[in-house]
Amino acid sequence: xxxxxxxxxxxxxxxxxxxxxxxxxxxxxxxxxxxxxxxxxxxxxxxxxxxxxxxxxxxxxxxxxxxxxxxxxxxxxxxxxxxxxxxxxxxxxxxxxxxxxxxxxxxxxxxxxxxxxxxxxxxxxxxxxxxxxxxxxxxxxxxxxxxxxxxxxxxxxxxxxxxxxxxxxxxxxxxxxxxxxxxxxxxxxxxxxxxxxxxxxxxxxxxxxxxxxxx
Amino acid sequence: xxxxxxxxxxxxxxxxxxxxxxxxxxxxxxxxxxxxxxxxxxxxxxxxxxxxxxxxxxxxxxxxxxxxxxxxxxxxxxxxxxxxxxxxxxxxxxxxxxxxxxxxxxxxxxxxxxxxxxxxxxxxxxxxxxxxxxxxxxxxxxxxxxxxxxxxxxxxxxxxxxxxxxxxxxxxxxxxxxxxxxxxxxxxxxxxxxxxxxxxxxxxxxxxxxxxxxxxxxxxxxxxxxxxxxxxxxxxxxxxxxxxxxxxxxxxxxxxxxxxxxxxxxxxxxxxxxxxxxxxxxxxxxxxxxxxxxxxxxxxxxxxxxxxxxxxxxxxxxxxxxxxxxxxxxxxxxxxxxxxxxxxxxxxxxxxxxxxxxxxxxxxxxxxxxxxxxxxxxxxxxxxxxxxxxxxxxxxxxxxxxxxxxxxxxxxxxxxxxxxxxxxxxxxxxxxxxxxxx
Lengths: 215, 438
Ligand SMILES: Nc1ncnc2c1ncn2[C@@H]1O[C@H](COP(=O)(O)OP(=O)(O)O)[C@@H](O)[C@H]1O
Ligand SMILES: [Mg+2]
What we know:
The structure holds 2 protein chains of 2 kinds.
Chain A: E1 4-12, E2 18-20, E3 24-26, E4 30-35, H1 42-49, E5 57-62, E6 65-66, H2 72-82, E7 83-86, H3 98-108, H4 115-124, H5 140-152, E8 158-162, H6 170-187, E9 190-195, E10 207-209
Chain B: H1 3-13, H2 15-50, E1 55-59, H3 63-72, E2 81-82, H4 83-90, E3 95-107, E4 110-115, H5 118-122, E5 127-130, E6 138-141, H6 143-149, E7 156-158, E8 160-161, E9 176-183, E10 194-197, H7 198-206, H8 242-245, H9 253-256, E11 261-262, E12 264-269, H10 274-282, E13 287-290, H11 292-345, H12 350-391, H13 402-427, H14 431-436
Parallel strand pairs in B: 4-10, 6-9
Antiparallel strand pairs in B: 1-12, 1-13, 2-11, 3-4, 3-8, 3-12, 5-9, 6-10, 7-9
Helix pairs in contact in B: 1-12, 2-11, 2-12, 2-13, 3-11, 11-12, 11-13, 12-13
The structure holds adenosine-5'-diphosphate (ADP) and magnesium ion (MG).
Residues 42-43, 88 of chain A line the site of magnesium ion.
């Protein structure tokens, strides 16, 4: 069974463009790259997949469940448990330490994850030494690792990443991509990256190009 | 980890931005709480001491001063009145009882009052140990005075002249007062007085006084704090010379009977018409009748206006501080919209964000509330120390008034109101739109 499957997805902004997306699906332990230049609707698509926005037309199934059948708290809970999202820019709760920030994920989705599990995750991402630091004291690259750790801590079956590499230099970009891949394999999940970063083009076999944009 | 923990952390994160809010809030709360505490204890003291005293008969002067001096023992007396002249009033059938008060001396700044045992009985003050004074130079001491002075049964002391502790030894008298009893604490003025028969005061002051009997005050009011008591009859007591004349006076007492003076009489009426009759009797004398209830009401009114102004200022400060809570939460929301959106992405429900913002507001308000209540207690303690120095009286800072529960309730309630709008904004936030905006 596919972890994620979309059919006829369309989104129309009330005072903006109509976005039409190709249908696709992703299996366990697979990677999918969605490429598109700026303004082609990558972020919008990612939000539709995460259930943060409802499509105007079409549907999204995650783990066989139609996202549109859920609403309110149930949707928030489902997202929390099954989908890990790494956003274009990393945002954290400023008042909390690194470890407390990643522990927010299991807390808000009612998952049982121990502090030592969280520490293991930080260790895997090579930022265990920063666990008691405030996130604002970290470098951009380190912040991105924390964001990845937070997205993965709940053992999600779907990992969504929005431009995870565009702010990084070649070396760091490669690192982050490898990290995401390793963790995806470790969790037996599906990894979906949306980006305009052409450096990733040759790294991922499964690719979709976004072009469609009607105004 | 709990919402409450995140709210707590967030509250401190913004410490810099919330300092002003906290400061305003705690000052507002502090001032109001201090007013409540003061008002409560002052009116308590006033009402307790006024008891059933209908009139105070004393020398002409400010009626309020007469009351303050003789009912509350916090001001200098207006002067003295002749016992013989007072007779026609205190023996009037409309008067049920008259308790004499004679001032003259102090011990270490604590007032020695010549009176009758009825004075303490009137306030229903019981004896803790010993007995009530009977003969001249026996004293029964109020509980607070005894404690502060360290007076014990059987102890003797020499008095100083006047009402305030005076450094000069010459002013002291040679007669020894003996402590024969100590009263129980009662919360009335008796607590801070040293009571003795009126005769003690007369005898102390008789010596050397007879040749100057023309002047009004055997009991001088050398109170330097009260310069402008216009009607006060200053008595200069420079001519004291006790030792030489002691023996000469034993026989002379009866001659002096008419010249006996006291500072005031506390009157309790027998008949309701007393207020119509008695004032007629003091006309054309140098005495006056003051009504404690009326004077204290007048004082309360003036005091009340002052209190209202202070309260209005405090309420204004509170309103500003609530606006400040509102604005700081609302502004913070703009900066924090991303982290709130992230919490939703992680599975957080709308209601959890709502509660988070509400709790942050409440923490801020509760913190201000606690600081304010502590501040008011510190303030009252300082005031109490001042009152102790100047009036031998104190305020209790370690009480919690029922009105303060209202203060806590209203403050927390307003805290909720101030955080409601920001919390609702967090509740209705469009996370996708927020997260696409970066
Ligand atoms: N709230 C909105 N209202 C109207 N148009 C929007 C809104 N958000 C995004 N758009 C438009 O939708 C298109 C896709 O945006 P987005 O998904 O952010 O693109 P990308 O992430 O690929 O750069 C853009 O043309 C953008 O201007
Ligand atoms: Mg984008």
